[in-house]
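Morning!

This is the sequence you dropped in the shared folder:
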Amino acid sequence: MSSGCIGAFFDFDKTLLETESAKLGFKYLWERHLLSLRFLLKVLVANFFYQRHLVSDEFIANIMLRFYRQKRLEDFADGAPLFYQDYLKPLLAPNILAKVKDHKCKGHVLILISGSPRYLLEPVVEDIGFDHLLCTDLEVGNDGLLTGRAKGPLCIDKTKRTLALKLAQNHAIDLSRSYAYGNHQSDVPLLESVGYPFVVEPTAPLRKIALQRQWPMLGFR
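The structure's back. C-alpha cells below.
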C-alpha cells in the first residue's frame, strides 16, 4: 500500500506558459529602454543556437543572468506582479492551467519548478495557488547589488530532480504516484522521477524520448 501524498510538478516556460518568460521580460525591458542593444543581440545569438539544441540550458541561463549584474533585486521584484498580470497571465496555456486546477481539486500538492528567477515566479504561485516553488535564486553581493550569478545551483536539468526528491522527502510526497509536466529534453530527469510524466508541446529531442517511452503528449490548448 503506497503512503504519502500525491504531487504535481509543473515546468513554467513553454509548459504552463506558452512562450519563454525571458523573451517577454526582455520585451518589457526594451520597451522601457532598460536593455542595451548589445546585450539583446548577445541573447538573440545565444537563443539561435539554443533553439537548435546546440548549447545547453546552463549556457543560455548564465548569459541571461549577466543582465542582473550591479542591479538591485527590489527593482525587479517590485514590478513583478504587474508584469505577471500584463505579460505572463494572458499567455498561460489553457490546457495546462486546466490540469493544474484538476490536480488542485483532487487535493494534490502543486509544485511550480522552473529555471526562472524567484521574483518572476512568485506572482504566478500566489495567483494560481501553487503549494511550493522550486526555482533559481539570484545572488546578492555584499554591496547589496546582484552579482549576475545564481545563488546555488540553477534549477535546470538534474537539479530539478534533486530538488524534487528533496521536497518529496520533506513533505511526504509519493513520487511513484505523482505527476510531472515538461517540454524540454532537460526536463527528462524530473519526468523520470515520477510515476506519471507528461510532455507538453515537446522539443524534437523530447518528443523522440516520449514516443520511445510512451509518455502522453499534451498541447497548450
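Headline: The beta strands are 7-10, 109-117, 132-140, 146-151, 179-182, 196-200, 217-218.

More detail when I'm at my desk.
O.
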